[in-house]
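Reminder to self: C-alpha cells first, then the designed residues, so the page reads top to bottom the way the pipeline ran.
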C-alpha cells in the first residue's frame, strides 16, 4: 500500500511546499482547498515526481462535510498554526483562543492515538510565510509606507522540511519556529 498524505489548505505557501516535500519522499498527495484554482496544474507537476496527486475541493468551515473528509485520513496528522496558539498576541483575540483550544485537543489526541501508530505533530509558526496572502499584504504595506515590522519571514520550504523531520523521526510532538 502506498504512503499518502492529505494537505489541507494547499495554497501557494506552506501547503504546496509541504505537498512537494512529501511527494519528493514518494508519498501520494491529496490536495484539499476551498478553490480548485491552480491545484490541477500543481497536481500534474507533483505527478511528474512519480506519485499520484489528487485534488479535492472542500471548505473546512462547512462542518457537515468534515467527517466524510476525515474518514480518508488514517496514518499521520501534522498541523501548523500561528504563534498565538502558544501565547496571546496583539490583534489576535479573535483567533488566538480558538487556536489554543485546538492545541489542547491535539495534545489530547496525541496521547490517545500514539499507541495505535498515529503520530500527531504540531508546529507553531511565529513568522510571516513567504508566498502567503499575508506576506503579500506585508510587502504591499511596506511599499506604500504604511507597514510596520511584522516579524521575521520564513520560506515555506523550510517549514515543510521541519514538518517532514517531525514526521519522519516521530520525536517531539510540538515545535515552534522561530525557536
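Designed residues (179 positions):
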Amino acid at each position: 500500500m502506498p504512503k499518502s498524505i492529505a494537505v489541507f489548505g494547499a495554497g501557494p505557501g506552506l501547503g504546496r511546499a509541504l505537498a512537494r516535500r512529501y511527494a519528493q519522499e514518494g508519498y501520494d498527495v491529496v490536495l484539499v482547498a476551498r478553490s480548485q484554482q491552480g491545484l490541477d496544474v500543481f497536481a500534474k507537476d507533483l505527478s511528474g515526481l512519480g506519485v499520484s496527486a489528487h485534488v479535492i475541493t472542500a471548505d473546512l468551515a462547512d462542518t457537515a462535510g468534515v467527517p466524510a473528509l476525515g474518514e480518508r485520513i488514517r496514518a499521520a496528522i501534522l498541523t501548523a498554526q500561528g504563534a498565538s496558539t502558544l501565547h496571546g498576541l496583539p490583534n489576535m483575540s479573535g483567533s488566538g483562543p480558538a487556536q489554543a483550544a485546538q492545541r489542547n485537543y491535539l495534545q489530547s489526541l496525541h496521547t490517545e492515538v500514539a499507541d495505535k501508530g498515529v503520530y500527531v505533530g504540531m508546529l507553531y509558526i511565529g513568522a510571516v510565510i513567504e508566498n502567503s496572502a499575508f506576506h503579500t499584504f506585508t510587502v504591499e504595506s511596506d511599499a506604500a509606507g504604511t507597514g510596520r515590522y511584522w516579524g521575521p519571514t520564513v520560506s515555506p520550504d523550510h517549514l515543510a522540511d521541519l514538518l517532514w523531520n517531525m514526521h519522519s523521526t516521530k520525536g517531539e510532538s510540538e515545535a515552534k519556529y522561530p525557536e
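The first strand starts at residue 4 and ends at 8.
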